[in-house]
Known about the structure:
By secondary structure, the chain is mostly helical. It has 8 helices and 2 strands; from the N terminus they run ααααβαβααα. A two-stranded antiparallel sheet has the order 1-2. Helix 1 packs across helix 2 (31-55), helix 1 (2-24) runs antiparallel to helix 4 and helix 7 (193-209) packs antiparallel against helix 8 (225-232). The longest helix is centred in the N-terminal third of the chain and has 25 residues, at 31-55. It is elongated. The relative contact order is 0.12.
Amino acid sequence: TGYGIMMMVAFLMAGWAMRLELRRRRLDEEFAADIVIAAVIGGLVGAKLWYVAITGQWNALLSRGGLVWYGGFFGGLVAVLLNGWRKRVPMRFIFDLTAPALALGYALGRVGCFLVNDDYGIPSSLPWALKFPQGLPPSSAGELMRAGVTFPGGTDPNLIVAVHPTQLYETAVMLIAFAWLWRHRAHVHATGWLLGAYLTWAGAERFLVEFVRAKDDRIFGPLTLAQVTSIGL
């Protein structure tokens, strides 16, 4: 699927960005491949387990879908740090090395969500609002009502509604974040500072975009689980 292709592209481009940084520092470029392999394994396992934990759908463990970014982030973080510990690479160096790559990978991964018409937003009348009749699920009034969106009484549940293309919002913001992080990768702050900057970008972006996402997990009052996690970041 387009999502699978863009996931592969995201990992490869993130690895390429890390190789360039290792080359700039005159360090072993192969370490970027080690990070990507660990991130793929830990990220996919973490993304699956997080999805199962919040939905209770154990059969999703072996399905194609059912991946949650924050689960993937934490799972990948553990795997990458364990690999760094095995190779005796300082943890804070890994933080600096991976920060721009994380932003780039996330931005490209959201293109995959757009290609399969997933993770869209609430109804919108803006000129760039889009309809997803073949979405996962379709952007129909019935599906949006299940996600907590209210419609006037008597609305046809099969009506396809134009919604915010939140996938593209996230891609745009995180490409800007990547450009900013890439420009500051030779910073003069303490080692590891760059990951803190990434977490600020990523947490703020996800917290804000969730207000216009079609979500059914607003379990903390008006806030979603992703927003609470974003505040933590």
